[in-house]
Amino acid sequence: MAAIRSSSSLPNALLLLNKIPGITSFGALAPVKKALDSGKVGHTGTLDKFAEGLLVILTGKALKLSSFFTNCNKHYEALVRMGAETDTLDPQGAVIAESSPPSKATLQAAMKRFRGPIMQKPPAFSAIHLDGKRAYEIARNGFPVDMPPRPVTIHELELRSYEPPLARISVYCSSGTYIRALARDIALAAGSRAHLAALTRTRSGPFRLKDALSLKDWENPNHDEIRGALRPLDETVFAGLSIPVRHVDEETAAAMRLGKAPGRLLPPPEAHETQAAIFCGGSFTALIERSRPGPPNQAEAAGWRYVFVV
Q: Fewest 10 Å CB contacts: which of 49, 158, 300, 301?
């Protein structure tokens, strides 16, 4: 991908950032906001404060596409401390239960139960809304939190090493999976207790940590370095998200920017198409999605509607 070096206006762009432990995901956006002199910057998937690794950040109007980047599979490398469970399931919490670490054979047997589709109960200390409040707000006030389980998928789960009480595990999972909860549940299945000692996100969808920007100075970052790491939303981005690309001429692109119904400008979607990224002369123009049939005088009748127009 070609980098965006600078712009007189805020670019609609993508930035891969390597978050360090000790700052929140929201706090990690501060250097980017300063570099771009704008608050129109957001991440597409939270990392806990103690965790590190890949944050996929969008800027400008591209923020409207956040859901397409958030709902990607993720890959993590985790360090699990067996024998002690904390209230937050991470190293910053208070120990609430202890048990002897399991044997390697017992741990490996327990892990087999968590591969594939599972029902997972999220941590009490999470940002999930319950009755209009964040779960962690309820938990911090000392009230019990009953988190309903929800479906997630663990595509790959491997034990990298085990030197009791520390287990290194690799997890490839669906969006919405809590690795803290996974560590808790594996330990319980192995007759023990556990919490995460460290966590690194190495991949989110097609984006990898090895390609992310690592800031040397978070307090006084190099703004040129940040701006130079911005990436345009080019065809490779949408290919990585498994979104088909369609090309249009300038006349069609201009009509789209004026809001003319996409169904009147483009052929109807193919059977396999639910979305399509529209490009004109190498520049991203719009994202459209399949719509349900409607009256002939409505745009939906043609099968396409806008999600985003540059």
A: 158
